[in-house]
Structure formats: structure tokens, C-alpha cells
Amino acid sequence: MSMKLFYTPTSPYARKVRVVAIEKGLKDKIELVIAPPAENPPELQKTNPLGAVPALQLENGESLYDSPVICAYLDSLSKDNPLYPSSGIEKFRAMRAEALANGIMESGVAIVYERRRTDTGISQKIVDKHLKAIDRAIPVLEAECPAFGEAVTIAQIAYATALGYISFRLPEISWETKAPKLAKWAETFSERPSMKETVPKDL
Ligand SMILES: N[C@@H](CCC(=O)N[C@@H](CS)C(=O)NCC(=O)O)C(=O)O
Q1: Which ligand 1 atom sits nearest the alpha carbon of residue 65?
Q2: What is the pLDDT, as a whole number, of residue 1?
Q3: Domain architecture of the chain: domains with CATH
């Protein structure tokens, strides 16, 4: 029995996990199962009571969520290509980077959900709040990216998948024009097989 990853092809959190799995050489150990949360798939809800993707079912039937927990677990499975520094302030900087990327994803997803609402009108106040958060986060990534080394890290994977989601769903934000160094780095990073294999697409 292999591990099972419940995911959707558009979830940026799930993409982060899938990129981690590929970069760690664990792809063949994980069965990918599409589980759109809106359809209330019982297997997903059994694996993650919150009903959100990504959720990972381990070989012993135990489950792990949410995405930072899954990424850290997958990283721990092999010593090759370590993605998280093991100690010191570096470890917490990596966790902070992942939190920042997750926040960008949350704001992006919130804007998309808000715009799709049909029950009441769109709350421009909510949309603006999330747009501003993304606007404040992008310069932080722009300032950090020149220090990225050759080795792939969780910060790079998290940033690349967060930015990929914004480009996919909210291209009008046009973060690339506001952060040229980041745009160049992201373009190069997007050539990695792990990124190419996980490009978001609607079902
Ligand atoms: N903090 C979670 C967020 C996961 C999340 O919000 N996933 C979205 C899809 S992009 C989802 O499943 N939403 C549906 C729901 O929560 O019911 C993580 O990092 O994994």
C-alpha cells in the first residue's frame, strides 16, 4: 500500500505538496487522488475532518494535514535534497517563508471565492483587504529572492507555487511587473520538471 494524497489540480497548497514529493524523489510512493472539497468526498473527509485538500493518508492509515505538515513530513522521509534547515534561526526563516506563501495563497483563494459568490454581492472591502496583503507580500519576496541558492528549499517551492496560483487565477495583479527579479527567478524555477508536471488546470 502506498500513501494517498487527496488533492485538486488547482489547489496551490496541494501543488506545493506535489512539488515537494517530486523534488524529494517520492512521487512513486504516493497515489494521487482527485478530491474536490465542494463535492464532499467521504474519503477526503475521513482523512481530513476539515474536508480541505491537500490531505495525506499514510501507509498505516493515519493521516496528515495541512500542507506545511505534509511538506515537513515528506522532507523527513529522506535525507536527500533537504528542504527545511534542521535547526537555528534558518529553520524558522524557512517556516516563516512557507507561512508567507500560504498567506498569499489564502488571500488569492479568498479573492477568487469572493468573486464567485452568487448569494450576496461581492464584498469589495474583502477583496481589497486581500489584494493589499498580496501587494505587501510581493516586495518581501522580491527582496529575498537574490539570496536563493542553487539548492531547492521549501521557501522556493512555496513562493513559486503561491506566485503560480496568482498568475493562474488573478493575472490582473501583474506581480511580475512590480517584482522583476522575482519574475526572472520564478520563470527559471518554473522550468523544473516538478513545476511543469503540476501546472494548475481546471478539471
Ligand atoms: N491551510 C491549509 C489550506 C487548505 C485549503 O484551504 N484548501 C482549499 C483548496 S485550495 C480547500 O480545500 N478548500 C475547501 C474547504 O476548505 O472546504 C493548507 O495549507 O493545506
Answers
A1: 20
A2: 62
A3: 3-76 (3.40.30.10), 88-195 (1.20.1050.10)
